[in-house]
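Hi R.,

As promised on Friday, here is the backbone we talked about, encoded as structure tokens. Could you run it through your design pipeline when you get a chance and send me back a sequence?
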């Protein structure tokens, strides 16, 4: 091999060492031209790497502390924000009123938990029966808002609407079919909060339709958001207003649609959840 493109003889003339050297046994006085490795350099290198790792760990811990100090669910000290997946550390509610969770704490997390559970109640089959609907609305609403909310829901869930769905005036499905109406919260977003009022939006996925081989309205999925205004009344969060908007809707997946009997069986077997943070 040559250096700089010159021949081997030229290298020797210029004193450039060749890459291959032979050391004979009788050459006791031969001195190795390669410098010995310096243990001091190795120690310095290892210490430097350790210091870099320590600095990285300290920086990461400071970042975590800053995130915790911000509260996790707020953009600043004054405006609430979204943090739907983080638990609050508070125990879920243990009480129920007319089958609906109750006794939520007077906190931002308590308001979100209340709104989420109320979304489930308002999205269920009970809303299609006049007596059950009145019980649900009365249970979750503030005393001065009950009449107005009940009037609005009665207009939405009219006997004519039930007929279009394929159920009778009492919300019962025809024989051999199973009526499905279920809301599954995906997350909640606290848009405003004080000690006595709150505004919470709950993003939901829904199931709706009649399950069965003879169904003309098969069970379909939907996506919607329920926007609640809440008030603190008699030791619990109560609804003072409610509106619903479509979406956000993700792109449908490639899952095979299940048959009517499988859907009906799943509805009977799989119960709902109590949502709490």
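Update: got your reply. Pasting your designed sequence below so it's all in one thread:
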């Amino acid at each position: 091999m040559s250096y700089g493109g010159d021949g081997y003889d030229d290298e020797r003339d210029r004193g450039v060492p060749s890459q291959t050297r032979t050391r004979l046994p009788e050459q006791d006085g031969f001195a190795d031209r390669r410098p010995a490795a310096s243990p001091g350099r190795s120690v310095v290198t290892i210490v430097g790497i350790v210091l870099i790792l320590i600095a990285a760990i300290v920086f990461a811990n400071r970042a975590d502390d800053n995130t915790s100090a911000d509260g996790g669910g707020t953009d600043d000290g004054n405006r609430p924000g979204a943090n739907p997946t983080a638990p609050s550390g508070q125990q879920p509610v243990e009480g129920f009123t007319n089958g609906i969770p109750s006794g939520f704490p007077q906190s931002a997390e308590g308001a979100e938990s209340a709104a989420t559970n109320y979304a489930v109640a308002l999205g269920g089959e009970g809303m299609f029966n006049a007596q059950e609907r009145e019980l649900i609305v009365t249970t979750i609403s503030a005393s001065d808002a009950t009449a107005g909310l009940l009037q609005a829901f009665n207009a939405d869930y009219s006997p004519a609407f039930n007929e279009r769905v394929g159920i009778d005036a009492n919300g019962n499905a025809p024989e051999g079919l199973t009526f499905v109406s279920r809301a599954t919260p995906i997350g909640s977003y606290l848009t405003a909060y004080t000690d006595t009022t709150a505004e919470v939006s709950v993003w939901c996925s829904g199931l709706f339709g009649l399950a069965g081989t003879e169904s003309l309205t098969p069970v379909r999925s939907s996506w919607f958001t329920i926007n609640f205004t809440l008030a603190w009344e008699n030791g619990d969060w109560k609804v003072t207003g409610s509106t619903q908007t479509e979406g956000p809707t993700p792109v449908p997946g490639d899952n095979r649609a299940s048959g009517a009997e499988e859907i009906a069986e799943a509805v009977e077997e799989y119960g709902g959840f109590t949502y709490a943070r």
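One thing I noticed while checking it: Confidence is low (pLDDT under 50) at residues 1-35, 65-77.

Thanks again,
M.
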